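Q: I'm a student working through a structural biology exercise. My instructor gave each of us a protein and asked us to get a predicted structure, then write a short paragraph describing it. Mine is 7-cyano-7-deazaguanine synthase. I'm not confident about reading structure output yet, so if you can add a plain explanation after the tokens, that would really help. Here is the sequence I was given:
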Amino acid sequence: MTVANQRALVLFSGGQDSTTCLAWALSRYEHVETIGFDYGQRHAIELSMRPQLLKKMRALSSDWSNRLSEDHMIDLSLISQLSHTAMTENIAIQMQENGLPNTFVPGRNLMFMLVAATLAYRRQLGVLVGGMCETDFSGYPDCRDDSLKALQVAINLGMASRLNIETPLMWIDKAESWRLAASLGGTALIELIREDTHTCYLGERGQMHVWGHGCGTCPACELRANGYHEFIAKS
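A: Happy to help. First, here is the predicted structure for 7-cyano-7-deazaguanine synthase. I'll explain a few features afterward.
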């Protein structure tokens, strides 16, 4: 394995999936950096959770602390200028005529990966890690395995590079994601995810449910809650 392939960049939003992916990367790579995006998201509270989460991730393991390096925050507010979605505007969440929920932000994950790849190229990071999943998700086409594989080919052709895109959650459901977190960091990581991550599309932080904070009714909260209850039932 090359030196670059021991250096990873994790797309880290401050949510459940990206926190699990960060733990996964810290368990595998010698050097890990994180990148977050401010795109005018309605649930921008997740951005305010990131510094605290990174600090607490370091505290979970001295090995993880040694491996976890720089964090990068990128302004991608142009996304909110280009799109009209329930993720970027205060409108009701509903299904659209094309069969996709209006929380879908066209091109968002593709742009995230492209920007991450550009940063990774400069910083000699050979692996990009993202929390995309097509097993238990809201139907976003840019979360699909085929989309990410095609993007990896396009990025490497366009940059004359050999970046690898890793998506450890791609083929597991939310209950399995909770189990993965438990296998990586035990009860301490599960509690960190419950108490300090944010997934709710509406950005509601006030009420603490057994599975974490959130409105409890948006698609993201429902997936997280159902997965947690299944995880607990089978633990």
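A: Here are two points you could use in your paragraph. The longest strand covers residues 31-38. The chain has one domain: 4-173. It's a good idea to check both against the output above yourself.
Q: Great, thank you!
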